[in-house]
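2024-03-11 09:14:02 INFO receiving multi-entity request
2024-03-11 09:14:02 INFO entity count = two
2024-03-11 09:14:03 INFO echoing inputs for audit
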Amino acid sequence: MTSIVPHTAHQPQAPAADAAPSAGGRRLSRTHREWLAAALFLLPDGIGLGVFVVLPMFLSIALSFFQVSGFGSYEWIGLGNYQRMLNDPYFWSSIWVTAKYVVVMVPTLFCVSLALGVLMKQKLPGMAAYRTAFFLPHMLSLVVVGLLWKFMLDEQTGVVNKAASALGMNPLSWLGDPDLALYAVIAVTVWYMMGYYMIIFLAGLNEIPQELYEAAKLDGAGTWTAFRRITWPLLRPTSFFVLIMTTVAAITGTFDLVFVLTSGGPANGTAVAMFYIYQQAFVFGEYGYAAALGSFLVLIMVALSGLIFKVTKGGRFDDEQ
Amino acid sequence: MSSDTATITKAAPAAGTTTAPRTGTTRRRRRPFGPRAGLVALAVVLSAVSIFPVLWMITSSFKTRTTVTDGKLIPTDLTWSNFAYVFTEVPFVRWLFNSFITAAVVTAVALLFHSMAAYALARLKFPGRDGIFVVIFSTLLITAPVILIPLFVVVRTLGMLDSYAALIIPPLFNAFGIFLLRQFYLGIPKELEEAAIVDGCGYWRVYWNIILPLSRPILSALSVFFFLANWNAFAWPLVATNGADLTVIQVGIASFSTQYGANWNYVLAAAVVAVIPMLALFLVFQRQMVESIKTSGLK
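2024-03-11 09:21:47 INFO inference complete, emitting structure
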């Protein structure tokens, strides 16, 4: 009997050598009982992940070869959707917007969260209160965040421009200018996310042995040298994790915010790829074309993750030895 | 980067921090307004900036139609009428109810399924275990928006569109919970279970009577996360449901705001009602949440 584990190619292996040696005849049945138990324990999540995550992933690729008109008539068009994609200026504009968003947002968020993490490491009086303040925005939903900032960034009535005027600066049309609007979306994202990644960095910083800093101090190293020579290299796994997570989130996770805050405007200045794909599918009913665009986006994401993995020499995810 | 403990002006230690033993090597006198004071000032200013929008939202929701854009933090004329309007004008209670049911059921069922899978991956030996874990882990990269369209097609094919099943079943399955729980289980000493297995307990009893009670802290943290994530969900409910009866709170607020866009006092009141339960959860469970985020930052 082989183990029944859904959705993975089962490779028969030699029975594990470290299995508890017990009475010869009983051993096999005990091993098999364990296999069966494992299969049953994995069954609910295995089926669920298979049907609602892995299957859609493959379906996305399959769908991309069809033209789907309205509800349910499929017509095989081979690479037609991909040809259309190559000649679709709106799609490339959305990729360009996404690229700008990723390139500005990811490093900014990284630096801000790391700085906050280092600040929280200083054991200042009132720590708990600051931590709460930084983390609180993350409790809101992106819909509420979008509405709130739409209210605050309003050109005439928003508090941001009122404050700017009071300080003698020119009020800006935050959501009315295509370039500015994207930076507004980036700023809001950083504000929303920084508390979460601050805690991740803080955890990474707490892993670094305190003795190293004390030794460095004795050797006369300044704060900056200690950071560059101790903190930065030892934080590598955490940095890798944060980079991957924020890049993936930046490519796909901005949909809610853009939907509510700017609806992709002005002049498609904030129409990120995910927003354009949503429009193709659920506004124009072009499911096949949207699936092709989505598959392309996943390809970019996998490539980028691989690139980050290479550049950071891979943070180790899992050392279970 | 120094967390110098040999300061003369000893600040009251904040809750949850432990002061390292004095090394006694370097004792420098510090002026009371040294770099530390600068850092405290910085932390205070940044905290204020971070929290200001949330306060602004809450106070603005008590203003009237005309004063909502007056740029004052403290409302001049407090009114509760915005909240009354929101609850009477739209089926707000229904939206809250839908979100609550969805988030509660998803949380309970997901915790059961994920802890079962995590137990098998952390403790049971079977062929292909590592391969399965890698496959599960790699699905972490497949974020929900990417499979929004094919997921919609799958759910439509299964005939689940426009039902509570559509709201509840797909969000159950994400690898994040499995991953965190597995990390936690790997850290539990094996002796307890081994003794039970030798005594002839079945795997289910070991899981139910030993593992689950031991994982109470991580389960409570994860339940807050799952509840929060599903309470705040927007994109999937937006495409999966059409009926007014199934509108969840986030979709409701978004549509409400397009309808009453200019009446910021109403829109913000609706947003505040949606946010308050989560803020309350956060303030109660803050410590557990922070701890569980820390375990996800990988070692």
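2024-03-11 09:21:48 INFO post-check: The first helix of chain A runs from residue 24 to 63.
2024-03-11 09:21:48 INFO post-check: Chain A touches chain B through 124 residues (CB under 8 Å).
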